[in-house]
Amino acid sequence: MRVSRIQAAENRETVINVAxxxxxxxxxxxxxxxxxxxxxxLTQGAFYKQFASKDDLAAQASRRAMESATHRWSxxxxxxxxxxxxxxxAFYLSMDHxxxxxxxxxxxxxxxDAARQGDDVKASFEAGISEHLEILGRLIxxxxxxxxxxxxxxxxxxxxxxxxxxxxxxxxxxxxxxxxAATEQVREAVAA
Length: 192
Fold this sequence. Notes:
Elements lengths: L4 H22 L6 H7 L4 H7 L3 H26 L4 H9 L2 H4 L7 H9 L4 H22 L7 H21 L3 H20 L1
Helix pairs in contact: 1-4, 4-5, 4-8, 7-8, 8-9, 9-10
């Protein structure tokens, strides 16, 4: 049975959304096309009508994951307009976010995997990271004549590293300690 163009476009979006979540949970090589397509409610044959390769899907899914992360940052700032940077820090450096394997930060979940992928996946991450830096730069603003970009890079690096480290340890107290230490360091860096 032929699939309409509208249905094909919807199927493509479904696959990208499912892949963005499953890749964050399992890594790019942690799930095969058959299982990925099954999770999207489609057959493996439908994959090749939508994507040139798994690498093509990885780039699309990475872009979607980074867009999702940016939307979550925007939601955090909108929820606390009096302290938007504090809202991002509180959301990002939380045990809840640490536990979100499928919906959490794609930089944390896939950063080392992305470094081993092709240029298209790296470009998706680079665009998303640039957007994160832009948001942080706006939230930090100019302080003591220093441009926000350097501070934004330090803040993002600290936050990503803390969540990644908190995920690789079993001890929840140690995980929390990483998040708390990063929160303190980020607040001090922004205030300086």
